[in-house]
Amino acid sequence: MAELNDFVAHTLTSIWGVMAMAAFLGIALWAYWPKNKSRFEADGLIPFKEND
Fold first, then answer.
1. 3-class secondary structure, 9
2. Which residues contact 41 (CB under 8 A, 6 or more apart)?
3. Is residue 6 one of the residues assigned to a domain?
C-alpha cells in the first residue's frame, strides 16, 4: 500500500509541476503578445496622468 501512495504522490506532484509551468507560459505569452502592447503601455502611464 505504501508503494501505491508513493506512486500517487509522485504522479500528482509531476502533474502539478506541468500545470504550473503551463499556466506560467500562458500568462507570459499573453503579457508579451503584440496585440496587448498598446494597452499595457497606456496602463503603465496611469501614475503620471494628472488628476482633474
1. helix
2. none
3. no
Please tell me the total count of domains within the chain.
Answer: 1
* Domain contains 37: yes
* Domain limits for position 48: 23-52
How confident is the prediction along the chain (52 residues), in pLDDT tens digits per residue? 889 889 999 999 999 999 999 999 999 999 999 999 999 999 999 999 887 6
Residue type at position 23:
A
DSSP SS3 for 47: helix
Query: What are the residue ranges of helices labelled H in 1-52?
Result: 2-32, 37-44
43 burial (CB, 10 Å; 0-12 / 13-18 / 19+) is exposed
